[in-house]
Design a protein that fits this description.
Rossmann fold, 8 helices, 4 strands, alpha/beta, homohexamer
């Protein structure tokens, strides 16, 4: 079920049998010369929908802009500051907890979100308990990073080996090609591509990774691969979601 | 052009000829017994896409969750606090201004967002000037409320008269039916429906408007109406966008 | 009753029969070559006192500095950021609600305050309910803009026609002349005066409106007009206040 | 000169010869059974006006609500949280520094403001330098507490001895009687009055000081005393202001 | 007892008989050519430990970085903004109050902390009461400034007279020499040393006090003096702590 | 070199040859029935000092209280909220960057700090660049978690196998025993000990882990083990620090 396509009485009924909700979170940031700026949001959203169908779970609207400050020297990149994102997550969880949700499963498409999400979860548990919201003590959050699942990782390894890289990867590009086959972009990719540097600020990032890729060769991506990634990720995260709900 | 389906070099090129960007902003809130919780985001997004096509303008990803605190006693409603939303808008505008955008046209689907958006704009102009971001002085923001356009308003009046109401209105429901014909909901609607009360806090709102509607009869909505609203709104806001860009 | 001229036992007694309070809010900003910097605060305060007398209502001290960031490139202008003003309003309402006030009627002298005030009200309802302050659910806020009242608007139209303009208007200047006849300023006013531009940041504002006026001719103002505006506004807002208190 | 009764060109001219401004800050809090809730603001404002006249200095509008959280269990008391007040002071100083003021002399009527004001000054110097506002390095703030001046203190001692107490004191009440002779309140005062306890939270304060006085006997106050206090304070603070301006 | 060398069951047991805790707070800031950057933290910590032993009181870990923004133009100085420090104190007090502490005695080594600490206490009382933490109404905070105690002050006067000065004083340097005899620094000290200026921003401070001292001659310090200061301060603050705990 | 035992001219000289600084960060939280509440701060501090000596690096004072909200239902635990800790880190880095440091190596003793630290680093890079601090673009931060080093991990495995657990582990307890042999605590430890649950809020944590341990047997710890951990961690992190400094 998609929250945005539901009515409030439908949500009320859903809450009778489940208090779980899936929240897709992506990013709006450069993904190299050929990757879509919305890559991380697109991937998180499509997989969240897939998991939602498999697990009969409610899926919230996608958080399209995440923590991508290091990409903001490339045109079109957008980001929240971590301190802003913590407040956003607090607001989301407070509203949803007030009316009965207690298990929040974030399906995440962007590595840069992980730290801030975890920080936000800690702050949210504390905030909800301090505010004495009924059921605050039952609230639990979990992040499921689709690109870090075992089967996804293995598939990427098989298909691309070292050319998977770590940003603007062929795996994520493939997944967006599967979702938006009409938006496949082609451009000459310089070779070799920079890789291996740690991530610091936005100026430093653009200097080290001038075309935005980190060691990846997105030219290898195909929509068919994308379908495989989609299926692997949905399967794996559906299981994770079930385990999350069932954990005592 | 959709920002999320663009690459950063495409954005760089776009910025050569235009510094304008359209940002759809909706809400995730109850819309009565039959209205979709995502109504405001769905409407803002579809119209923003339409205007983007007409005007050859860049369209940013939709802000799905807005300022709907007064709806948060209904299951499934989500909201940012105004103080959070101001920070979100500051972050969006700072990132986009840094790389060259200066004219921000928000296509808005929710009356509850207007005050906070305007407050955020004021804070953003100040913040950007204080931060000495090049071009800060050229930054301008405008809100285009699709539901308040003259032609849209007139159409709603003609089609529904007084039964348009002011929340969960047949016009917005019709537009979502046009976008998602498979998600048309039916439920018995009590009559008469409450109307005429001012909006205060969430508890007060739910007590006064127990099924979530404010004086509206969404049963009157049809997908065909939705198409008409869509076309009227796109036409009107495309003109507004052009005027906004061309204003000295 | 003026809060600042009352004792706490008098307030305690007042609360036995009424939970309403009037809070004047103005601004400290340039008002053109001849308008007083305190114009908006002066107008809000004098009208609030008038309404307080008519309605036997408690009147809080005036918020002298409001949201006037766009005026801050003119010497002597002062402003709160919207995010600061929201916190100020939260603090005011929390303190007053804790000891029994629940109906807050803001008499406002400055258009630039409206958006932030409304945003603050939404945040306050939420904050007070979350903090579980007794009576939080009964809290209601309303803005009464003296310059937007029907009779005031009509009077300005009659007296000044198009020369009323929209900032440093003869109507508000007249009202300050009525209150402070010894502080009537004269200076040559350039003609024609700029008008018709939207309001963005402070640098843009000063460039467009170099002497601070927006389409107005404050030379038309007289203290006698001021008295008429005072009487019209007090009458109209007294009625609004009564309606506000009596609304269920 | 009163800022609120000046025009911006007058302020511009003033800045040619002085960069100093006086900012009165009071409080809106209970002052015992007979003291006015606005006592601290009234005192700060009248003395600031007096000093402004003596010193030909600009006087900003009064900050009516200060840091009085410990009084907020008495009806009618209002307060900012210290963290809010710091933001308010930052906003005031940033706006005024931007257009040329650099020496900020706060005439303070309330002991509870002192700590937060000093904290705010430190934050402001840092903030203004970080923001690279021209002249930031020249900015200086000082608090002048009228009630702590040597001559005022001595006068209170002479007139009231131990009955001066430390809150709702006869000296401050006398000064308000001088300003508002029509608002002199009388009520039976219990004796002895509580005194000698440190100040902690609001609940604790009201328990210890049930009628709001701290060791004082405001019955001793007269308007004539008030005049003496006024004159002593104006004289002393005028000198302080001159020294402040002239300090290298 | 030192909190960091205790186990939680030991703390639980301690709380059976006392709800008091000592929190040392220092600063990390330049202390002239020969004073240690950690002077204020070292002094606060050693005295807090001494008082803890004398009074059988729990001692929390030292807050090493305080409010020293005016020193931050000297290499190695660190500071919190006052608004940050208020949040830090709120977090400390909330955590400790939740599990049973109610009397917080800050042993302070830095004058620059006092204002912000007092502001923070006011905000904390309010915050804890608003959050309805059990026992919130019993919470009390007090600052004990070791360098302002009567016996310490007298000793400094006797030993150093006017050469005590007001920053990088021989008394505090002596105390650090007593604690860290291996870290005694020597350097030529210019004479005369600047003194008598008020403290404003960081740039102004370094211009006026180019070597960081304010009127002091730290060359007079000896470890033996340090021992005397230690003993005087511990004795005096132990008594203060006892009085604080026993106050009704 | 320890910053707190240095003078500012010594820091100035140090900055001639290195811009690196080590910042130990721990936590003040329950560590089971026998582990010290200061365990994480003690471990981080001692290792930081060791690395500082090996690498001739400056070591800042220890951040004693970190992000441990989930432990705050045990007496004596203290925590910052993540949003507070981000501001603290911003303040630290801003002050130190202003005077010349650019490479910040956090030696961390607590897993719960990692997410918030990383979020804070992202915010700091952005903040420093926005504030246009000279050298902002050269700023880099890194976390070195002593307990996650390869050699430390291996040693723990060898010595304790599965009984290492994940909180109040014998390895960290051993290290504190090495540092504070007089503070070795003994208490009966229940067996088996809870393990394997994810970490959510404070109430949930205490319910699942009633004595505070997570799958660990701290009884196995000895001071001699502690020495081994100390040496392994210092060696490994010294190398990490060198690599960090030398990375282009």
């Amino acid at each position: 079920m998609l929250l945005h396509l539901s009515t409030w009485p439908e949500v009320e009924q859903y809450l009778q049998s489940s208090q779980g909700i899936i929240i897709p979170i992506g990013s709006t940031e450069q993904h190299g010369p050929t990757g879509l700026i919305g890559t991380d949001a697109i991937c998180a959203e499509i997989i969240a929908k897939g998991v939602g169908e498999e697990a009969q779970a409610m899926v919230a609207p996608t958080i399209n802009v995440g923590m991508a400050l290091h990409h903001t020297n490339f045109p079109g990149s957008m980001s929240l500051r971590p301190s802003t994102m913590i407040q956003v997550i607090l607001d989301y969880l407070t509203c949803l907890t007030k009316t009965g949700f207690t298990r929040f499963f974030f399906i995440n498409g962007h590595g840069g979100n992980i730290a801030t999400l975890k920080a936000a979860f800690s702050e949210a548990y504390y905030h909800l308990e301090m505010a004495k919201i009924p059921q605050a003590e039952a609230v639990r959050c979990q992040v499921g990073n689709w690109f870090m699942g075992r089967s996804v990782y293995q598939l990427a390894k098989e298909l691309y080996g070292d050319q998977e890289g770590s940003h603007a990867t062929p795996s994520e590009v493939a997944l967006t090609q599967f979702v938006y086959p009409d938006a496949i972009k082609k451009a000459p990719l310089s070779s070799p591509v920079a890789s291996g540097h740690a991530i610091y600020g936005a100026t430093d990032f653009r200097r080290r990774y001038p075309d935005g890729r980190m060691g990846s060769n997105p030219d290898l991506a195909t929509p068919e691969h994308g379908k495989q990634f989609y299926e692997a990720a949905v399967k794996e995260l559906t299981e994770s979601y079930h385990n999350f709900l069932q954990s005592e």
